[in-house]
Backbone:
């Protein structure tokens, strides 16, 4: 039996998280190829009905237009926060906060510009060498996502992304290149960011143009299947090349509550939960769960599989389950329940919860529930690799950024994490999302800020890019120094 824990373990990995496509900029420097995320054109979020005017789905007509007339549009993810040229300064600030780990992703088209080359782009590889060396200088352990919502756009044009089996070997080549190159610098890896994104935006998660497939739902599961195989092959290769590597899978965890104790609502909550845990179920156990076989049969989902796939899944099971956590959802028995399950925007509101400025429900207790459920289900370590508050920050007259709302949000989540650890959950670490302000994935806004570090830039890309620590910067520094004991009043 594991000993009773009173708080965060000594080796707990405190830190922050980012993604290449939201921070790097330099979208065409040093031989980098265009990526799927380079096509997310800015749309005024306030012009739509919702503040969540998602910009991340691109169809084939838009893609042609963006490729042919790039000057007519703004593409914020192409400039990011120019981490490419500021990484030394940014990592020094992370070190000042006492980060033990820094989650970042590698841009696939920086390494293989079209994804099809036999040889990698040396300048791209060298950039990440420098970034990892800089981390190591301060004793910061890099946590690397291989594919965080971007891939070479050529693979979308040529194969329509992950609906093609061809992508598996291309990804394996990419993964092996990374493991071989960084084997002495990176121990913690995640193959794909939030794989269940495929059910929200197939373009974002898998580079698939939805208007080019007959059945979007079937395509989402087909793409997921190929990603499962690619991920398992990568895990297997990673373990061979770096014997002490820890390689995880990742989902966007949404805790689903039933609206009432009506049995039909409860059953619906169970089904919503299964849609969410489907991904780690496959990647931890190395096989498809039975509930999914029924789901496929009843929804007429027929995906192409090969016999050997199932051996590969077994050979490439993960070492830990990583997840992001932002919100809980409410489910009920209604005709569109299946469509709503797992979607970012839920029409059913929870009257007990406050919302962020982007209408995301704030629910720290659901984090404790999720941690317990996931650990009970998998019995392998968990890693909370994203969590945070997107908010509009204001630079005060004193030149500072006072963000008590962010401190409050993160503090409440840390309290629940600690409770879950006391419940017996094995949690490896916590990397808050957007530890430095970055471009929003969903809306391509700069003004949706998550960071402890403010970056002077607006939604249109104007600004000095100056970095300014916010009040939360100094607060988080104290949290890390006290290993989660001192959370302020
Ligand atoms: C996660 C993604 O789903 O949510 C990140 O992995 C993203 O890339 C984060 O930035 C927050 O979402 P948004 O839309 O507020 O940027």
Residues:
């Amino acid at each position: 039996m594991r000993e009773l824990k009173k708080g965060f373990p000594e080796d707990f990995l405190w830190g922050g998280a980012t993604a290449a496509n939201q921070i790097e900029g330099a979208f065409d420097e040093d031989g980098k190829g265009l990526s799927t995320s380079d096509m997310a054109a800015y749309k005024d979020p306030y012009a739509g009905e919702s503040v969540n005017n998602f910009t991340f789905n691109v169809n084939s007509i838009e893609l042609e237009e963006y490729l042919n007339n790039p000057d007519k549009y703004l593409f914020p993810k192409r400039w990011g926060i120019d981490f490419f040229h500021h990484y030394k300064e940014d990592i020094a600030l992370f070190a000042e906060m006492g980060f033990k780990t820094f989650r970042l992703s590698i841009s696939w088209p920086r390494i293989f510009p079209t994804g099809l080359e036999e040889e990698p782009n040396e300048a791209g590889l060298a950039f990440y060498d420098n970034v990892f060396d800089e981390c190591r200088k301060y004793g910061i352990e890099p946590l690397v996502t291989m594919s965080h919502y971007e891939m070479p756009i050529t693979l979308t044009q040529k194969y329509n992304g992950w609906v093609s089996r061809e992508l598996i070997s291309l990804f394996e080549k990419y993964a092996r290149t990374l493991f071989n190159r960084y084997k002495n610098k990176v121990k913690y890896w995640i193959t794909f960011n939030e794989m269940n994104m495929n059910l929200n935006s197939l373009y974002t998660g898998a580079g698939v143009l939805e208007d080019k497939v007959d059945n979007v739902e079937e395509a989402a599961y087909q793409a997921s299947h190929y990603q499962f195989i690619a991920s398992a092959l990568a895990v297997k290769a990673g373990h061979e090349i770096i014997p002490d590597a820890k390689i995880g899978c990742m989902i966007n965890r949404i805790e689903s509550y039933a609206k009432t104790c009506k049995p039909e609502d409860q059953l619906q909550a169970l089904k919503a939960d299964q849609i969410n845990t489907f991904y780690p179920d496959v990647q931890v156990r190395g096989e498809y769960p039975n509930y999914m076989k029924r789901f496929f049969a009843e929804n007429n989902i027929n995906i192409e599989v090969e016999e050997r796939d199932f051996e590969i899944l077994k050979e490439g099971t993960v070492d830990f389950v990583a997840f992001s956590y932002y919100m809980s959802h409410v489910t009920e028995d209604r005709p569109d329940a299946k469509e709503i399950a797992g979607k970012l925007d839920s029409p059913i509101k929870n009257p007990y919860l406050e919302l962020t400025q982007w209408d995301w429900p704030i629910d720290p207790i659901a984090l404790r529930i999720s941690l317990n459920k996931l650990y009970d289900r998998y019995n392998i370590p968990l890693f909370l690799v994203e969590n945070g508050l997107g908010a509009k920050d204001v630079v005060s007259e004193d030149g500072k950024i006072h963000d008590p709302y962010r401190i409050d949000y993160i503090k409440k989540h840390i309290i629940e994490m600690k409770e879950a650890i006391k419940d017996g959950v094995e949690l490896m670490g916590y990397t808050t999302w957007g530890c430095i302000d970055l471009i929003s994935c969903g809306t391509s806004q700069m003004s949706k800020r998550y960071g402890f570090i403010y970056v002077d830039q607006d939604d249109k890309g104007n600004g000095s890019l100056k970095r300014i620590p916010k009040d939360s910067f100094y607060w988080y520094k104290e949290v890390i120094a006290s290993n989660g004991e001192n959370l302020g009043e």
Q: What stands out?
A: The chain is about 40% helix and 15% strand.
